[in-house]
């Protein structure tokens, strides 16, 4: 039977924790609770990692109405950019697609000289491509989360 792939093969332990914090939009600054959410039994190792990330400027503790919350800084977001960049790329393609369709509809209604059917077709194809890429990205993200968490030791 082949060896099961773990998240350690893909990314570092700190990156995994930062991705989790980013995905949740911030987590309550309680090491025990965060440790349980991540499925770890040892709070000490996670505490060391969080403090290390705070020292490096990747994570900050922010005061909110719910209490203290761990949030990623811009430096932390740049560190995990390779994980979250596909979402921004898809947003760009989506906006370009809508722009094409908008101009095509404008040309149809305003009777401009350019044949709008080409803009309409390219915009529609771009939207379909964006939808397919988005679904693939969601599927990949679910598989990524199910790969398994890296050990803290």
Walk me through what this model shows.
The protein is about 65% helix and about 10% strand. The chain is mainly alpha-helical. It has 2 domains: about 5-75, Winged helix-like DNA-binding domain superfamily/Winged helix DNA-binding domain (Arc Repressor Mutant, subunit A, Orthogonal Bundle); about 80-145. Strand 2 (about 60-65) and strand 3 (about 65-70) form a beta hairpin. The model has no long low-confidence stretch (mean pLDDT about 75).
Overall mean pLDDT score?
77
State the helical fraction. 55-70%
* DSSP E strands, number: 3
Structural domain count: 2
What is the CATH domain class of the largest domain? Mainly Alpha
Find the structural class using helix and strand composition: mainly alpha
What is the CATH fold-level name of the largest domain?
Arc Repressor Mutant, subunit A
Beta fraction: 5-15%
| Count of separate DSSP helical elements | 6
Radius of gyration: 21 Å
Topology of this protein?
Blueprint: H1 13-24, E1 27-28, H2 31-38, H3 43-56, E2 59-64, E3 67-72, H4 74-79, H5 81-110, H6 116-147
Antiparallel strand pairs: 1-3, 2-3
Structure in a nutshell:
The chain has 153 residues and is mostly helical.
Which keywords apply here?
mainly alpha, Arc Repressor Mutant, subunit A, 2 domains, three-stranded antiparallel beta sheet, 3 strands, 67% helix, 9% strand
